[in-house]
Amino acid sequence: MLKLVSLGAMAVALAAAAVALGAPAKSTYTYKATLTTASEVPKPDAPAKAQGVFTTTVTENGAARSIRWTLTFRNLSGKVVAAHIHKGKPGVAGAVLLGLCGPCKNGQTGRLTISTDVADALEQGRAYGNVHTARNAAGEIRGQAKLVKRSEAAATEIAGTMVRVVATPSL
Predict the structure, then answer these.
(1) What is the reported pTM?
(2) How far apart are the first and last CA of the chain?
(3) In degrees rounded to 5, what are phi and psi of residue 132?
């Protein structure tokens, strides 16, 4: 009798085998923050329609961590002098974890190596994107980073062939 095994179950089994064998694992986490004046603490002196989006993908490859990010914004009170990732819960101002750009341009992107502190704060929902202008030096628009996609991959050798297993669970 022939039994069919779902690809999902096979991927999970292969990933578990790869991890058990000590094979290198690579994980990616994508976050998105909708930036608004209403989320900013303290409340800024800014146009009501000021807004933006901050997206970032964290890649963990063994002990190494890096991010690739994109920042867009519009209707601000002036030029963006800096943008950061801050540590903090919604409604609470927090310390800067990572500088992104300064001065910044709409649509700007970047790649940086990050510490485990930054990766952990994002993963635990304790990080936010913040955009600063000259008029609002403490921040004009802000948004809490929220996980929107997670993907994990592992590699293992099966019958002399390296096999890469990728699992992307739904959130």
Answers:
(1) 0.78
(2) 36
(3) -110, 140
